[in-house]
Specification:
- With about 290 residues, this protein is mainly α.
- The chain contains 13 helices and two strands.
- A hairpin with a 7-residue loop joins strand 1 and strand 2.
- The protein is globular and about 70 Å long.
- The chain starts with a helix and ends with a helix.
C-alpha cells in the first residue's frame, strides 16, 4: 500500500512542479508586487495598500468594473440562449446542418487580427457595411460611430464578442443534447406537452451542468477580454469601453506603474475565484 502511494507521488510530481512554477508562483508574486511601487526598472519600494487606495479612488476603475459586469451578463446570457437555440434546431445529423454548424463555429478559430480587420470595415462610419445599408434603405439617421460613440462602444464590443463566441456555446450544447435520453421527450409528448413546453421544462433543466460550465467559462472569459477591445477601441472613447484588462495594460505599459497593475491583476484573480466558487457551490447544492 505504501509503495503504491509513493509511486503515485512520483507520477504527479512533474505536473505539480509545473503547476507550482508556472501558475502558483506567478499568482503569489503578483499579489506580493501589488504592495510595492515599481516602474519595472528601478528597485521596488514597499507602499502597503497605497496601490489599492489609488485604484479604488480612480473613477476609471469603476467604469472598467461596470463594463465587465455589463459584458459578462449580456455576453454570457445571449451566447448561451443563442447557442442552445441553434444546437436544438440543428440537432439532426444531416449534411446541411453540418455545413451550418461549421459556418457558425468558424469565428472561434479566427485570430483577433482577422476579426478586427473584418469589423473595422463593417463598422466604419463613412463606408462601413452597416451604415451603407442603413443609408441605402432610407435609415441614414441611424448611421452611427459604432466604435467612436461613448454610448455605443461597449455594446459594439459585446456584439462582436457574441458573434465570435456563439459557435462555442452551440458546440457544447450540441454535444450535451446528443447525450440526452430521448425517453423523456417521448413521455412528454405522450402526456400532451407541446414543443415549447418540452424544451423549456424538460430539455433546458436537464442541461443544468452544461449551463453551469458555460456560465463559469463565459464570466471568466469576459474578465480576460482584451484583444478585441484593444484593437477596435483601445478602451475609448473617453474610457467608455474600458475593461479591467485594458485598464491594467495602460497602467503597466503606458504609465510604467507595474505595482498598480499587479493590484488590478489581484482584483481580477479574486473576481475569477469568487465566480468559480459561487458556481461550484450552487451546482453542488442543486
Amino acid at each position: 500500500m505504501d509503495k503504491n502511494r509513493y509511486s503515485a507521488y512520483i507520477f504527479i510530481a512533474p505536473i505539480f512542479a509545473f503547476f507550482s512554477f508556472f501558475i502558483l508562483y506567478p499568482l503569489f508574486d503578483t499579489v506580493r508586487l501589488s504592495f510595492f511601487e515599481w516602474n519595472g526598472f528601478s528597485d521596488a519600494v514597499y507602499t502597503g495598500l497605497d496601490n489599492y487606495k489609488k485604484m479604488f479612488s480612480d473613477p476609471v476603475f469603476y467604469t472598467a468594473v461596470k463594463n465587465y459586469l455589463i459584458f459578462a451578463v449580456l455576453v454570457v446570457s445571449i451566447q448561451m440562449l443563442t447557442g442552445f437555440g441553434l444546437a436544438y434546431l440543428m440537432r439532426r445529423n444531416t449534411r446541411l446542418f453540418k455545413v451550418y454548424k461549421t459556418v457558425i463555429f468558424t469565428p472561434i478559430v479566427l485570430t483577433s487580427v482577422v476579426v478586427y480587420y473584418t469589423f473595422s470595415r463593417i463598422l466604419a462610419f463613412d463606408d462601413g457595411a452597416i451604415n451603407t445599408f442603413l443609408r441605402g434603405v432610407g435609415l441614414g439617421a441611424l448611421a452611427s460611430q459604432w466604435t467612436g460613440d461613448p454610448n455605443l462602444a461597449i455594446f459594439t464590443m459585446i456584439g462582436v464578442t457574441i458573434w465570435s463566441g456563439t459557435g462555442f456555446s452551440m458546440a457544447v450544447y450540441s454535444s450535451a443534447l446528443t447525450a440526452l435520453p430521448a425517453d423523456y421527450l417521448e413521455a412528454a409528448h405522450i402526456d400532451g406537452a407541446n414543443k415549447f413546453q418540452a424544451v423549456t421544462r424538460i430539455v433546458w433543466p436537464m442541461l443544468r451542468d452544461t449551463h453551469y460550465s458555460l456560465t463559469i467559462i463565459g464570466a471568466i472569459s469576459a474578465l480576460k477580454i482584451f484583444d478585441i477591445v484593444f484593437l477596435l477601441t483601445g478602451g475609448g472613447p473617453f474610457h467608455s469601453s474600458e475593461v479591467l484588462s485594458t485598464y491594467m495594460y495602460f497602467k503597466v505599459f503606458k504609465e510604467n506603474e507595474d505595482g498598480f497593475g499587479a493590484a488590478v491583476s489581484t482584483i481580477m484573480i479574486l473576481i475569477a475565484l469568487s465566480i468559480t466558487v459561487f458556481q461550484l457551490r450552487l451546482s453542488r447544492k442543486e
